[in-house]
Specification:
InterPro entries: HD/PDEase_dom, HD_domain, HDIG_dom. Helix content is about 60%, strand content about 0%. With about 180 residues, it is mainly alpha-helical. The protein has a single domain, classed as Hypothetical protein af1432 (Orthogonal Bundle). Helix 2 crosses helix 7 and helix 6 crosses helix 7.
Length: about 180
Amino acid sequence: MQREQALVLLKENLKNENLISHSLAVEAIMRGLAINLNEDEQKWGLAGLLHDIDYDSTYDDPKRHSLIGSKILEENGLPADIVYAVKVHNEAHGLERKSNMDKALYAADPASGFIIAAALIRPDKSLNKVVLKSLKKRFKEKAFAKGANRNQMSSCTELGMELEEFLQISLESLKEIASDLGLE
């Protein structure tokens, strides 16, 4: 599946604009990580873009989230490794993260919201002005972006990557799509 087709599929299943923006953000981070780890950028990007495809129908039932999504992806002919990565990004299922794609998606999901929150608290609401130093400081503040699971982001070590490097790659990846997110 090409990205354009994936975006159409996403928008057929997900109507919430904030969730679509989140999906674009996770896609960007996944692409940045894939480049850094010499992985398949297109495949990793699709996993990031489509990871929450079922959220409109499962937001009130977290145990079904990602199970429905992985089924949608499977029915649309996406590769098994993308389907599995989407399924295991929800830790509620207790499934093992096996591949680097699985591990990256698990860490990238909360990182997108965390970094965007850092941009939104700025007076200029600009991702381009967010720096790694402020992210590292905010990471230690439990009250900041409470929904962004720190343990999940810290799991980047499963990729052989320190948190600082992971956050830097994630930040730079999001800066590349800042205009798409309305956070220039």
